[in-house]
Structures are given as C-alpha cells and as structure tokens.
C-alpha cells in the first residue's frame, strides 16, 4: 500500500495528535515509512486538518497549525527517531530571549516534554489561550497574594 493511502486509512500523519506518526502510515509500518521520502502533508489526529509539511518559521513541521497538537516522533528536532508515537498536547508557551514564541508539548503516553518553534501559519487564538492560561487559571488561589 502506498504511503498516502495508508496515511489516510490511519487518520493522520504529522499533525501529531492521536497515535500515528505524522506523515507516516502506522506503528506497524513506521520503520519502512521513515526510510521513505517524507509526505507533503499529514492529517492531524486531534482535529483532522490536512496539514502541509512546509511552514514559515520552521524546517521541521511537527504540530497542527489549527489545534497545535503534535506527535511524539522526534528525539531531536527532525530525526523522527522516537519510538513512542503518541499524541503530544500543547501545554504552555515559552518566550525565547529574542521574543520568539515556543510551544511546549507533553506526550500523553510517556510524559516527555518537548519545546517546538511556532510556525508562521499557527492559529493565534489557541496560541493566545495557552499564553494567558496561567493568568486565567492560576495554579494557586489568587487571594493568597493579598496576604503576602
């Protein structure tokens, strides 16, 4: 079965959200698929969007620009060497010294954390929601600040 056909039957490839490797067929064929040329797009396992592999601001597309979910595929950016393959939830935003926003993803299976550059086509609404989450849902009662 071709890579594209198997990718569509599994529901996703590099959008990283359900359990299949972005741009790759399935866990059973991931070794073979990794040795093949990369797909031009993948289907997000979280929201179902067909996502192009190219994006402004990054050379290793690893998350869906719509919902920001990813997939645990890499040990180091772009190597596609991770054996886990589980979905990675966007949990936070970090800001680098130069002002660049970076997504922090946590694997839903093994809890590993990865920092991933945002891409030029990322949806600003979920990015902003992640950025303000600590203010909107603080990890402690705000009343305690008044007693300090």
Q: How is the topology of this model organized?
A:
Layout: H1 3-10, H2 30-35, E1 41-43, E2 50-52, E3 70-71, E4 87-95, E5 101-107, E6 113-117, H3 124-136, H4 143-146
Antiparallel strand pairs: 1-2, 3-4, 4-5, 5-6
Describe this structure in words.
This protein has four helices and six strands, in the order ααββββββαα. With 148 residues, the chain is of the alpha+beta class. A four-stranded antiparallel β-sheet has the order 3-4-5-6, with helices on one face. A two-stranded antiparallel ribbon has the order 1-2. β4 and β5 form a beta hairpin. It is globular, with a radius of gyration of 17 Å. The termini are far apart.
Helix content: 10-25%
Distance between the termini: 64 Å
- Percentage beta strand: 15-25%
Strand runs, count: 6
Question: What spatial order of strands do you see in the largest sheet?
Answer: 3-4-5-6
Number of alpha- plus pi-helical segments: 4
What is the makeup of the main sheet?
Answer: 4 strands, antiparallel
- Rounded to the nearest angstrom, the radius of gyration is 17 Å
In sequence order, what are the helices and strands, one letter per element?
A: HHEEEEEEHH
Q: What global shape is seen?
A: globular
Q: What's the overall average pLDDT, rounded?
A: 76
**Low-confidence residue ranges:** 1-37
Assign the structural class, choosing from mainly alpha, mainly beta, alpha/beta, alpha+beta, or little secondary structure.
Answer: alpha+beta
